[in-house]
Amino acid sequence: MQKEDIVKSHKRIEPYIHNTPVLSSQLINQIVGANLFFKCENFQKIGAFKMRGAVNAIMQLTDKQRERGVITHSSGNFAQALSLAALSLGVKAHIVMPSTASQVKKDAVRGYGVDIVECEPTLEAREVASLEIQQREGAAFIHPSNNLDVILGQGTACKELLEKQPDLEFIFAPVGGGGLIAGTALSAHYFGKSCKVIGGEPFEADDAYRSLQSGNIESNLSTNTIADGLKTELGDINFPIIQEHVDRIVRVTEEEIVSAMKLIWYRMKIVVEPSSAVALAAVISEKHLFRNRKIGVILSGGNVDLNKLPF
Amino acid sequence: MQKEDIVKSHKRIEPYIHNTPVLSSQLINQIVGANLFFKCENFQKIGAFKMRGAVNAIMQLTDKQRERGVITHSSGNFAQALSLAALSLGVKAHIVMPSTASQVKKDAVRGYGVDIVECEPTLEAREVASLEIQQREGAAFIHPSNNLDVILGQGTACKELLEKQPDLEFIFAPVGGGGLIAGTALSAHYFGKSCKVIGGEPFEADDAYRSLQSGNIESNLSTNTIADGLKTELGDINFPIIQEHVDRIVRVTEEEIVSAMKLIWYRMKIVVEPSSAVALAAVISEKHLFRNRKIGVILSGGNVDLNKLPF
Asked: What is the ipTM of this complex?
């Protein structure tokens, strides 16, 4: 990937996404002892950064491919993203979702007029169900995170953040399937001034941390985390980018995630989902290393079931 | 009051407040069938518009008065506002709070280093406790809503809104003690282009609605509302302004308040307290009258106890 690939992706998707605001909180800065700039992708269309990659991936399909529709499997936000992106671009979408996905997320997908194919909450079940539809409909499979156009799309959030705050020394992003962190790391590399990218990951789903340690793609030993967007695993397209461009990954406990989430809700008065809070939790858990530094934090999304809050 | 009084108040308080953002939501516009512009005072310092009036009132005191400190009684947001305003301006503050005020609000006041004098949750008890301290300390009493400098301060939120959206045809604001709606009505009168101000009020605390009907200041028959900031009653300073400049008041049910609050949280991804939602609930309950109109909505605050959400 070259710088130009991200620039082109950004130009391509701009009419279909929001250039989301960058917010600061004096109180959180005091608590952390650093200057934090929050990229608010919770304000993005469908409530999460995933809209960026979904639009970019569909727009890179040929006309013939677009006619046959697109398909993905996703626990939530990418499902909504591909649904709305497809609707905006006049393409039919099929979505395979685990039966355990939150009601809010299922309702949102149905709101875009898409039929959901429910399956068991395992990666195998998702893949089988999605392959079946690919073969039957000829639909193009778009992976939520292990797809180069998706990665380039997700990287545009970091590009916008650096356009507003060019002097960031560190950018923290959550690590789930690896699409956001890989895109963020590429953008920081091409558009930052020696800006380091650090991932935040729950101890309870620390496949990326262990993958960087071992040099191979590792599986999650558990996915018992409140950060429901981060239960997925790295792929062979994003892992080499992460190896090359991500500085390191900081793991956080469930208590640290909930505490960071409360801090954002109470102090910034914005709604973020637990996955977003993981990035701030990572900053806070190592705040002694970042005194007075300029730090970007990617708040990845705000889709949370208000009936199931952890506080 | 002249236009110049609001302009001067705004200049005076500007260094101590945020010029809060004005947000829109395509989805809420679709639901309501109008163009709504939300003035986000939930992002104001202390999380509510009350900071504006508190700063303005303290800054209008003489040096001698400032030396003796200030006192108020408040169920919540004005308590925090006067505490932070006093701290910012180097003035001592005393706060009388009802024992039933939410823990979040009490903690926030204590966070500014202010001692809280707790009293029974009645207007009489508040007034007795506060008079006692006024006499003992010589502190200046600053009423949360029935004080001209407070009213002028609160009006600056509407002035900022009209600076960004000069063509608003209607502005909705919640009605509690009457300070915000009176200030909003003054600003709409002086800075709007025949912009009408409409109040939103819970059926369960509809003193202002009935006061406008009867022509006298009426008391609440109940205060059994989730909108905890709107349980207070009009005063002799703000009532004549409301009579002259407020078009009318729309009452809403508790269900309408909770439903509007959910809509804001889910669709706009921002945290607002029930009192803020009352203004949107009023628009929605009469949406047939406002098709395609440009409407401002003052989101008054975002201080809510996350452990006691209505959903």
From this structure: 0.92
